[in-house]
Batch of 4 targets.
Target 1
Amino acid sequence: MNILITGKNGYIATNLKKYFLDKSDWQVETVSVRDGLPSLEAVDVLIHTAALVHAKQNDIAEYDRVNRGLTVELAQRAKKAGVRHFIFISTMAVFGLTGKLGQPEVISGRTPCRPITPYGISKLAAEKELQQMGLPCLTILRPPMVYGPDCPGNYDRLVKLAKRTPVFPYVENRRSALHIEKLCELMYDVVNNQISGILHPQDSAYMNTSETVARLAAENGRKIHLSPFLGRLFCALPIRSKHKIFGSLVYCVQDKNTEILFE
């Protein structure tokens, strides 16, 4: 089986390639789409991980060009070339939710997609066009925060914080997250069994932000004091980021199945 993964230098793409090569005899290549779209001849499975994530929030046109336009063009080429399975890495951000303080905000099959950021908006727009293209086999994944060794983004910020601070607010919260190893395992099953549909993968246990920082500190030989007082104080202050950091936002769990397929 010939597999092509976009996002050559990305965290997900590099880990997927290593996992697939270790697990199977598949032919796996990664490619960058920055300088043009690749040839798709003889490709059986195309996994599109490349995306614009951390651009300026007001650069709506660029988000749309990369996350929607480029995705659709790539899928059109894939269909024409006879690629039999197209896998699109979308995002939990298509729901437009940041989490609530004090109570869990649960995403289920009844939760509407109402993205509020250019990133989420462009990803949902790509999803909708892909679903109208009549691809032989289409899989869309909407992962929450992906984390693991050497992970960039928000998780890396928690790692750096855990290495520096002696005290951290304690807040009782729950957030869906997905370890990179879990994602790779799921992707292997998706490819091997040609699983189609929209998947909402997550770890078997929810993440607590405060406990995660404490665990990261311990892994680096440090001990952090988790302060409930600071937690209450932080949540009472008019800080815009508090819901994203300490709010509870989770995918529902259906029969302990963490690869949730919403009908």
Target 2
Amino acid sequence: MNRRKWVSAGCLSLALTMAGIIARSAPQDQQQQQKPNYTLVEYNAYNAADQEKDPQAKLKMLDDFVAKYPSPDQLTPYIYRDYYLTYYALKNYPQTIAYIDKLLTLRIVEAMRLPALVARAEAYFAGSSDKTLQTEEAYNKAKDTSLQGLQELNKLQKPQNMTDDQFATQKKSIGLYFNSVAGIAESGLKDYRSAIDSYKAAQALDPNNSVTHFRLAVAYLQENPPDSPNGFWELSRSIALKGPADEQVRAYLRNQLLHYQQLSCDKLVDDEMNQMITLAGSSVDSPASMTIPSAGDLQKARDDTTNFLTWLQEGGEHAKVMWLATCGSEYPDVPVRVLDTAPGENNSLTLKVYRPVAADPEAATKEMDAATIPNMEVHIVAQPDAKRLQKDDEVRFTGTLTAYQQSPLLLTWDNAKINPEDLQPAPTSAKRPIRSVAPRKPHT
């Protein structure tokens, strides 16, 4: 997934608006504390570069200054600051970060530290798809500076010219960047547990940020072993919040669900997705009632032939699991009683049949004899001899389960064929015994 599409489209540069919290420091601030170690000519040259508005011209003036003058210690932090702000304006994020890192190695006034850390986090967030920012060293540096930023943010005092609400909002915005970048870096280092913690911290600051939910979901799904239920929920929450790249996230969720459950009926995945997204639109946390059975859970249900029809008939959670497990499965030699026949075109035939729900053989025989309403519809193809079947014939068919109605119970089978042995004249002395149904594995 293209990370650039996940950068908030309307966000302003927090680094450039930090003046609302901390006044922009200047070289003159140091003159009250110590004698300047630069000349007036040097200061005027620096000031001219600092005031230049055109980014490309400004970079040239800064390069000329560094080449001409020995970069007095007291001016160096301000030169680096102008470099990183200019590179940020040009969207050259690796160079922005390089000059911030140079600045942070110096002894600087406190008023410069937090804005620099904010700018670094924002530059990394915007440029995280750049290969030069995806090395182990770059990830570790991004994580460390984000943690430093959170520490600096916690120490920040409210300026007198800001209301409590304005200050709290600004701190949340900055904290969201620091925690998000920490999560990106930790994911890059494959430390998904730490990434989950960082994204949760970001989520606590802004529960409705769809990007955070997406990144948290990916961290859950990349854990070893994956935490799939939480990952699916966070993806659903991201979709419900109508974040960017919605179609890509939907496709990602669908593929992850298919891999997790290994369903034979792809259409059921869409139903599950829609249910999760609907729930996620009204709740931050996953409801306790929401379950997403795994491939292992579904295999257990598939193997439970005794409760096959019972669970489908009763509805509820059992029916949901059984239908997920069996839709698309091919069953051999399903014993049924024919209640009606309807010939179609090209030698096709539709049978309305009944299969007893009871597992006990004696009870199943009584149930079969008493049936008047079908609970299965079987579509026979390419078997002309099946048209000889009549009402009340008891036969076995092999077919693929394709549709299910819970009340009244009705299962639909496609691509079915009658066991050839049962197309011979039925014996008159006794009925064929009811046989148990053993599903085969679904076709893939």
Target 3
Amino acid sequence: MNHEYIIKQLKKLSNPKNVEGMARFGIKSKHKLGIRKPALRKLASQITKDPSLSNKTVRHRLAGQLWSSEILEARILASMIDVPELVTEKQMDYWITGFDSWDLCDQVCMNLLDKTPLAYRKAVEWSKREPEFEKRAGYALMACLAWHDKEAPDSKFIKFFPHIKLGATDERNFVKKAVNWALRQIGKRNKKLNGKAIKLAREIEKMDSKSARWIAKDALRELSSEPVQSRFN
């Protein structure tokens, strides 16, 4: 099972109607096939279980080849099959420059990048970048770490707070939504972080920025809600 074979399989799964729908949801990647995530996950499972790809180095190389295709679904698939411990800093920095939609950004962050040893450092570093989807990657990574890294101490997430506050005034849609996501996800981890996230949201709410006020209002609505609070009681 090589990358040429996989690309052929992806093209067989192509759905033009889904491509049109993706555009309506703001997924404007140039090269997309309209393949739904369950189909990609099924193919990823087949790849990782293939005896010829049991060697992690071989699978890591395959992920790089799929990424080079520039096809949206091939790149998402690459993030599903790659090996986190083999991902280098150079690769991480290179891949985020290829983010051209919120979907690709978020999928790569949650499937792969948040499992790498450099994830916490890169989340902060990328949050300072200027390109919209590269900056989004920083905040999406914060959100994914808060979601997936169950054993991490609160201190790791508290360190994100100054950067969340700094990003709250970015008026670009895909940045502000990721900032909001990071704040909400951290605030749902436990009672202590919930209180600190609510406090930060109230600080952000006072900032002279339409984006900041939206982020704060939306975060406060969820973090103060009965369903979230009942989990801590």
Target 4
Amino acid sequence: MNAPIVLEPLADAQCTPLDQVDVSDPRLYQNHVWQPYFARLRREEPVHWRENGMYGSFWSITKYQDIMDVETRHQEFSSEAALGGIMITDRPMDHRRPSFISMDPPKHTDQRRVVAPTFTPTNMQKMAIGTRERVRRILDSLPRNEVFDWVDLVSIEVTTQMLATLFDFPFEQRRKLTFWSDTAIMDANAGGIVDSEEKRLEILTECLETMTGLWREREKLPPRPDLISMMAHGEGTHDLLDRPMEFLRNLMLLIVGGNDTTRNSISGGLWALHNHRDQWEKLRGNSLLIPSFAQEAIRWQSPIIHMRRTALCDAQVGGKRIRKDDKVVMWYVSGNRDETAIPDADRFIIDREKPRQHLAFGYGMHRCVGARLAELQLSILWEEILARDLKIEVMDEPKRIYSNFIGGISSLPVRIAA
């Protein structure tokens, strides 16, 4: 199932009968050949029904405005885990466990409200100090004049050190957070360690047990600003240990959300600059463009490829009739390349007039709660890279993961001149 796509992507995208186009195939993203398929759907059938695809039958929502439309209609399009949740994959009923992103109001609102204060502007200012210190140590420790993996030594370290700080997790064990994050999102068909939902749960049980131990310690202490303490003392979450699988799903939401968006935008941003030298020189010449560049890197990479909803009733989207119980998939990766909403959407432009006009963080009530933290980490990293005038040479193409949910880069070899 993980074999490479043989046909030339552009030719395949054009010659495949429209009703047979299946943008759920993870190989499109692993081989980075998804663009012409979505370009065709946006042009010919932006709300597209695929019967019996690799991940069942589903509607593809591919245009920017239609995606925002679905995002804001939670009374008609549900995120509830019991109905299928937020991923195109239909997991068995006994593995459909809720977290606040896979809930509808009011429960979603109650649980999200508990962790939201972590990401206020005031807290971002406080976090910036520690983030800069960690980034400086990471950059100053990198090898010079030898090839190393940017993903391993920079992208993962920046985000995992931040996660360990947010959870007040034992710092020397921080790579467990990375491992659990990778386990949570790994496609069972990817040929990796996770080959079934049972194996995934077996691995993540260690996460549940570890975090339960931290919870037990912190619920006995006065409230503190780490995420475990906030959940232990929060009005909407203080009883989560009574529902351990829901606790685990909320943990994985926070871990994956804190890891994958930033980690893959750090890697994807460097790869984009490598392939757009004019933009790299523009950035080197004007560090004030860093916040805009960070937004463009996130849009360009689109680290969350899709989000799924389930229709609660018959409804209309883009002139198409959606039936009750239909699976509705919003392809952020496509909305972020929609020329009708984003000018020159297929170009990487770090000084866009409206750099925040993208869907990489979602939209509406489910918009990523940690979006500002992702922007902060990217901005500080590139401020410190430019301050050191690091000459980063990308040595080979990135390796991408087998997934239709996470736009992930697993390896990117680079060399920094002394």
